[in-house]
Design brief:
99 residues, mainly alpha, two-stranded antiparallel ribbon, two-stranded parallel sheet, flat
């Protein structure tokens, strides 16, 4: 099993396990402590990019760089903004490209 497949399995397993416990922490508060008595759900944008699906490796990495740069720009404008990247290859490439 590849590293990314293993991590995906672990993350999905954790999400499933957390869904089984109604007293789990939600945004730093337990469900019972939510002032409105409602469950708060946060949607977090993310990027899923497949190598070679939308072009060469270099084209995919360049697209990833543009997405990461846009996410950083949004985070600078809106400190509450969050963004997830599925693959550390794109993060490593962005860090290398920015040097």
């Amino acid at each position: 099993m590849s590293r990314s497949a293993y991590l995906r399995t672990v993350i999905l397993s954790l999400l499933f396990a957390l869904s089984l416990f109604p007293s789990a922490q939600v945004a730093g508060q337990s469900v019972e402590e939510n002032k409105a008595g409602k469950l708060e759900v946060y949607l977090v944008p993310f990027s899923h990019l497949d190598f070679f699906w939308g072009g060469t490796r270099e084209e995919c990495l360049a697209r990833g760089n543009r997405i990461i740069a846009k996410a950083i720009s949004l985070a600078n404008l809106h400190p509450e903004f969050r963004f997830l990247l599925e693959d550390d290859d794109f993060v490593a490439n962005y860090g290398f490209a920015e040097k």
